[in-house]
Amino acid sequence: MFQYVLKNVNPMTIPFKKLVDVEWAGISEQVLFYVIRNTPILQNDIFWNLVEWTDVVDNSPSLQKFITDYKLDVLNSSVIYIDHQEAAFNQKIHVDIDRAKIILFPLLNCNNTRTVFYDVAEEDLEVEWQNNNEELKYFGVKKGHHREIGSFTLDCPVAMDTGVPHAVHVSPEAVFPRLSFAMRFNNSIDHLFS
Ligand SMILES: [Fe+2]
To answer: Per-residue pLDDT averaged across 39-49, rounded?
Structure first.
């Protein structure tokens, strides 16, 4: 059994940075085309979908160029699917299991949604499990008022620290499904946050 340690949440950490210089429209278009043509994600209605990185990048020359230009070494890639039912509850405040720094690209219907970060005390984090304690899902956050420390709308690529408590909020005007594309890396992307 692994031991999971709740590390300090540092409210001074910069939780995200918009990568405004990236020419992203072609990347999103090519990745979305790949998802529609080669995966069942739009039919399956599952929140978290790992997608084979080599397949994705083989189908997106623009993404390959971005990875090369930014000297990124991709660990894995995934597509996050939010439908209208999920959105009705809004996503719970949480910390991702691996606390990875990731890069997100908008794929579909990401307007009218907001990723919000919160200042949460360490003692308000709790380990949450699923499937009869078999799998650690995420670090949840106890109910209560948690102060917002920042937010973004995914209207361009964003580097994001999933170790800072966060949740996706959806406005009544949002259109579904909302799809985004996330990449995790073997090398550090800390420099993108400065
Ligand atoms: Fe998350």
So the answer is: 91
User: What is the reported pLDDT for 3?
Assistant: 42
Domains along the chain?
Answer: 5-186 (2.60.120)
Please report which confidence band the pLDDT of residue 10 belongs to, taking 50, 70 and 90 as the band edges: low
| CA pair distance 152, 139, nearest whole angstrom | 21
Please state the three-class secondary structure of 1-43 as a single string: CCCCCCCCCCCCCCCEEECCCCCCHHHHHHHHHHHHHHCCHHH
For residue 191, the CA-to-ligand 1 centroid distance in Å is 21
Q: How far is the CA of 173 from the centre of ligand 1 (A)?
A: 22
The pTM for the full model equals 0.90
Q: What is the CA radius of gyration of the chain?
A: 16
